[in-house]
Design goal:
The protein is an alpha+beta fold. It has 15 helices and 18 strands.
Length: 461
Amino acid sequence: MATIDRVLQRIDDGLEDSLSRLFDLLRIRSISTDPAFAGDCRNAAEWLAGELSGIGIPSEVRNTTGHPMVVGHAANGQAGPHALFYGHYDVQPVDPLDLWDADPFDPRIVTRDDGSRMIVARGACDDKGQLMTFVEAARAWMAENGALPLPISVLIEGEEESGSPSLEAFLTDNREELSVDFALICDTGMWDRNTPAITTMLRGMVSEEIVITAADKDLHSGLFGGAARNPNRVLARIIADLHDADGRIMVPGFYDGVAEMPADITAMWSELGFDEKAFLGGVGLSEPAGEAGRSVLEQIWTRPTCDVNGMSGGYTGEGFKTVIPSQASAKISFRLVGEQDPVAIRDSFRDFVSARVPADCAVAFTGFGCNPAVQLPMDSDTLRKGRAALTDEWGRPAAIIGIGGSIPIAGDFKTMLGMDSLMIGFGLDDDQIHSPNEKYDLQSFHKGIRSWARVLDQLAR
């Protein structure tokens, strides 16, 4: 039997032991955002470092200004590309506790009416179950082969759910150690319950708040209405100018660096069976509102956006107050794709707004971040091998997908360490991450382990 077949058999035979180890990790209350659980976060880091070292990936707990990192390396004298696996051991708070069916940190297997089974606990999917699929695949390789098929380093974070405040400094201080050929990220999902996926596109973001100020105080609209500038009107006009009638964004230079997707990728998406009406209907909508002529998948994966996330100005309390406000504000975000330059877009947006501010008004800007998009090259050999491995395991072609949001670590790996990321995960849309009764399908866990075993085999070829 070929090595990969023996590894897969070992995974199948050891599934119950793999579940037992996952349950041990799930019992640790590693809530990163609450200082009361700092000791639990360290316990999770030490548990993982011990498990990794025990299977032949020597690992240690590294202190940061916040919760510790776990770092390990296993070269094993192997040739070939060197990969850095990333996951996170911290979890979200469990509130509201009364909506959980049982203790969030007492993991259990629940059987559905159709006979399928799921693991229920905080962190079952995000991200303990996901990262343990990789750890268990590495365990099987080491046990069966005595070595991993390619050099592997590991970085497991403890602050992902609280904004990763220590990550940038840690990557900077350990740049030489952690810069390898490419990264493997497990914090993503499947296309559907039986179709694996590789996430190749993550949108970047520019987030801005603008404040328009006119008079030095709120004014009585009976005394000053018509004569005084109303910042609400000024702001509304500026916001209206951001899009044309077809939904295109009118900030100069905004589409610089936005490329069309290859025809074979868009053809693949058309075969995924995505139901646009159901997607929008599920939230009480019926008509796509993005750029005219673009599918919903294009609009949420590969096209940039501009959205007003909040507006405020004047009296908004109960009843009515006839006032002309002194100030009006809006929070506006841009989702970016491809090679768009977030700093250039921020500057162009500020110029766009400033040019529309009339006499007797001033504008102030506050920025909340400029992050570029991340896109794995479609002709990447790493992508091809990863897709082949997933297709072999699941019996159907792995979907190449995008995510409308962002996974900040993928951007950090690209900009700070110069590495592309292969993003493979086995979460499902109904896993209720961050919510009560978070779950991870047992199939996702079992076949996720098998999938990573195959991915490592393919990447080594």
